[in-house]
TrEMBL record:
PANTHER family: PROLINE SYNTHETASE CO-TRANSCRIBED BACTERIAL HOMOLOG PROTEIN (PTHR10146), PYRIDOXAL PHOSPHATE HOMEOSTASIS PROTEIN (PTHR10146:SF14). Keywords: Pyridoxal phosphate. It comes from the Eukaryota. One of its GO terms (molecular function) is pyridoxal phosphate binding. The modification N6-(pyridoxal phosphate)lysine is found at K67. InterPro entries: Ala_racemase_N (IPR001608), PLP-binding_barrel (IPR029066), PyrdxlP_homeostasis (IPR011078). Residues 38-277 form the Alanine racemase N-terminal domain. It holds the Pfam family Ala_racemase_N. This is Pyridoxal phosphate homeostasis protein. PROSITE patterns: UPF0001. It comes from Acrodontium crateriforme. Pyridoxal 5'-phosphate (PLP)-binding protein, which may be involved in intracellular homeostatic regulation of pyridoxal 5'-phosphate (PLP), the active form of vitamin B6.
Length: 286
């Protein structure tokens, strides 16, 4: 593959490094720092071991939250002996850009707050978008449906797009998410009106104070209890088994407590990648 140069583009104060190719659409092989890769592998191995101690017969999905971290870090974990597949991003444009330069075998999760006008482009442009975890309105669900339908018209897709309904379990006005009592209606809409989407379950972020207090498997978090109870009520209203609706709860500070309370997937970033740089200083690739 013959390359011309590396071109930088600026997007929302984030400098993104892209590979400009002549003979191929494939990106230039990114450099992986061996020492950085070793540190990342040590971190993710520790997280996986902690998950395994608590998951029992279940298989808890680990989403490595790579927001504001360079694509090199993602590639190091994906191509490692662990073959980490699931990565989470908080910003639409960052996810789209990383997906364009990283292997299609990665499963991307959009876990951050999502604007309605960004839903269709995201679903249409990223074929290996595995899940959108922050659906909290009918409009967002419909926009994702339109985007995925448009992509399906251009290429064959192996799976429908998995979506999770975000529930505001803490009652905080600044938090995104549908109210617990309104969750079933949104879930029903996705099942009935969005054939290119698959309702995977429910997600919550919860109150920071509760996350800091409930950090071990023995600690109970009210937000996790609320999400579990909401899931059970939604399952009853939809006429499905609760196990058909997964629970996504738990982050770096409280994922062990979340697993102990029934979480099927956890979103871990800082514990794996370290502290994040300010957004304006972040680079997609080094």
């Amino acid at each position: 593959m013959r390359t011309k140069h590396l071109a930088g583009i600026r997007c929302r104060n984030t400098f993104i490094v892209m590979t400009d190719t002549v003979a191929s659409a494939e990106p230039e092989k990114m450099r992986i720092d061996p020492r950085r890769a070793e540190a990342l592998l040590s971190n993710i191995k520790d997280v996986q071991q902690r998950i395994q101690k608590l998951q029992g017969s279940r298989k808890v999905r680990l989403i490595a939250v790579s927001k504001l971290k360079p694509a090199n870090d993602v590639l190091a974990l994906h191509e490692s002996q662990f073959g980490q597949t699931d990565f989470g991003e908080n910003y639409t444009q960052e996810l789209i850009e990383k997906a364009s330069i990283l292997p299609a075998s990665i499963r991307w999760h959009m876990i951050g707050a999502l604007q309605t006008n960004k839903c269709k482009p995201l679903a249409e442009q990223v074929a290996n978008l595995y899940c959108v975890s922050s659906v909290d309105t009918v409009k967002k669900a419909d926009a994702l449906e339109k985007g995925r339908a448009a992509l399906a018209a251009k290429q064959e897709l192996s799976n429908t797009l998995r979506v999770l309904v975000q529930v505001n379990t803490s009652g905080e006005a600044e938090k995104s998410g549908v109210e617990p009592g309104e969750t079933a209606a949104l879930c029903q809409h996705i099942r009935d009106k969005c054939p290119h989407l698959h309702l995977g379950g429910l997600m919550t972020i919860g109150a920071i104070a509760r996350s800091k207090q409930a950090t071990t498997a023995d600690d109970e978090n009210e937000d996790f209890v609320c999400l579990r109870d909401t899931r059970d009520r939604v399952a009853a209203e939809l006429g499905v088994e609760p196990a058909q609706l997964e629970l996504s709860m738990g982050m770096s500070s409280d994922f062990e407590a979340a697993i102990a309370q029934g979480s099927d997937e956890v979103r871990v970033g800082t514990t794996i990648f370290g502290e994040r740089p300010p957004r304006k200083d972040a680079k997609i690739a080094d």
